[in-house]
Each structure stands twice: as C-alpha cells, then as structure tokens.
Amino acid sequence: MGVRISKVAALAAAVVLTATASVSGAGAAVAGSNTKTKPTIVLVHGAFADAASWTGVIERLQRRGYPVVAAANPLRELSSDAAYVRTVINSVRGPIVLAGHSYGGAVMTNAAAGDADVKALVYIAAFAPDTGESALELSNKFPGSTLGDTLAPVPLGDGTNDLSIRQDLFRQQFAADVPKQQASLMAVTQRPIRDAALSAGSGKPAWKEIPSWFLLAGADRNIPVAAQRWMADRAGSRSTIEIRKASHAVGVSNPGPVADLIVRAATAR
User: Fold this and answer.
1) Among positive and negative, which fits the CA dihedral 246, 250, 252, 254?
2) For residue 57, what pLDDT is reported?
3) Sheet bearing 212-217, strands edge to edge
4) Residue 221 to residue 100: CA distance in whole angstroms
5) For residues 151 and 73, what is the distance between their CA atoms, to the nearest angstrom?
6) Is the predicted pLDDT of residue 25 greater than 90, yes or no?
7) Which of 227, 201, 202 is closest to 141 using CA atoms?
8) Alpha helices in the chain (DSSP H)
9) Does 14 have pLDDT greater than 50?
10) Rg value, the chain, Cα
C-alpha cells in the first residue's frame, strides 16, 4: 500500500506541476499581449451637449477593448477649455487618440499641440481652426449655418452671454436624424456655451503636427459640410468620410461609423 500511495502521490504532484506550468504560460501570454497596449481614446464634446453625447460611441469602443475617457468640456473660453482638456490628457498614461465633436474639435486642436503622446486627432463634424481663427468665423466661411437664428442668449453680467439652442428648435437644428423623444431629452439637458468661446482666436494647431481623420455630417445645420470638408482638406486628413444625411449630432445618430473611424485612427501606422 505504501508503494501504491507513493506512486499516486507522485502522479498527483506531476499533474499539479503541469497545471501550474500551463497557468504560468497562459499568464505570460496575457502579459505579452498587454505589452502592445491599445491607445486610450479621449473624447471631447462640443457646445449644446455633454459627455453623455458620446454614449453610443463609448459602448462600441469599449466592446473592442479600448480604454475611454470622456472629458467634461467646460464650454467657457477656448484657451481655458483647452487647458482643462490638457490636464485630462496629462492624466492618461501611454498613447492617446483624441476625438472631438463640433467646438470640441477646436478645443482638442489647442490642447494637443506639442503633446508627443497624442498619436491621432479625429474630427467629428468638428472645427479644426488654424492660428487666429475662431469657431464663429469658420462656421460662417461657407453658407448654410442656421444656428444663429435658433440661439437663446442669457446675459452673464460681464458683457458676455451663455448661448443655448431654443428647445422648440433643437431637433431640427441640431439633431434632425435623432428620434424625437431622445432629441427632446437632449434639448433639455444641453449645456450652454459662453459666446466668448466661439469668437476666440485659436492658438497653434495640433493638426499641423499630428495625423488627422475627419467625419463629415452632410446635413449639418451648425457647421456647413462645405466648411467641414475645407478644414479636412487643409489639415491633410488621412481619411475623410461623409454621412450624407447626418445631422450635427452625428455621434448620437450614427455611433457605429464614428467609432469605426476612431478605431481606424487608433490602428493606423
């Protein structure tokens, strides 16, 4: 019996050692896969929206294994908004892909300038200003924007105003291809932007140093698609796609193509 027990014990020990080696090997494989870390996607929302406007895009990026940070853009003034987003970028370790919607594009254009960790810029129906240009100037560069007629200003007491889109006009102006009930909620929860942010001149543009990708919203009533295309061409966009019937809220109505373009930028060589 003693001999048999010893043989059984030896066999069991061998099994344990084999299993341990297998687990260690699997751990090494996982560790090896983590050496090629996916970049963190930092999302910057624009005016009349908040970070939740990226929800559909975030879900799709996370399903593909990307870490995501949705910055809370203050919407107060271009230089200070960019400074805030820069602190968000600085808190992220490793490579970064920045994606900005609307005014968020102007913010990330300033926030990413000179940052070696930012590997790509993705403009989603967004402003890509050059030095000295403002969002207001670019939105009026080509005919077609009807935003001004829909705005409801609220004086802030310092000579500037908070601007929101009138709730009764919000869907047709901002989110015409978003379901009515969802657009109604977006109208109520929109965040106002200070008018000084839209009229401020931009600083040095990151798109002159960092590769860019552009998604154009073909039925945009905030930033005419002609202006979006012109900015994409000027920036030397690596890839430009257009969704012909998309409203300004293209990230809400078409989160799949938006996420796809971000992934394309993240995996580019």
Assistant:
1) positive
2) 98
3) 68-71, 40-44, 96-101, 118-124, 212-217, 239-243
4) 18
5) 20
6) no
7) 227
8) 2-34, 55-63, 78-90, 103-111, 135-139, 167-174, 180-189, 195-199, 225-235, 250-253, 255-267
9) no
10) 24
Instruction: Quote the tokens at residue 179.
Output: 């379901």
User: For residue 37, what pLDDT band results from cuts at 50, 70 and 90?
Assistant: confident
- A 10 A CB-CB count for 156 gives 13
Query: What is residue 210's three-state secondary structure?
Result: coil
What is the distance between the alpha carbons of residues 210 and 129, in angstroms, rounded to a whole number? Answer: 14
- What does the DSSP assignment read for 62-123? HHTT--EEEE----S-HHHHHHHHHHHHHTS-S-EEEEEETHHHHHHHHHTTT-TTEEEEEE
Spatial separation of the C-alpha atoms in residues 45 and 126, rounded to whole Å: 10
Could you read off the pLDDT of 95-134 as tens digits, one per residue? 999 999 999 999 999 999 999 999 999 999 999 999 999 9
Structure-block tokens of residue 253: 């109505």
CA nearest neighbour of 49 among 94, 133, 105:
105
Cβ neighbours of residue 139 closer than 8 Å, sequence gap 6 or more: 127, 145, 147, 222, 223, 224, 227
Contact assessment for residue 89 and residue 118, using Cβ atoms and an 8 Å cutoff? yes
| pLDDT averaged over every residue in the chain | 89
pLDDT band at 36 (very low <50, low <70, confident <90, very high): low
CA dihedral over 228, 194, 69, 269, signed as positive or negative: positive
Q: Is the pTM of this model over 0.70?
A: yes
Nearest residue to 42 via CA among 132, 114, 125, 124: 124
Residue 216 — pLDDT band, cuts 50, 70, 90?
very high
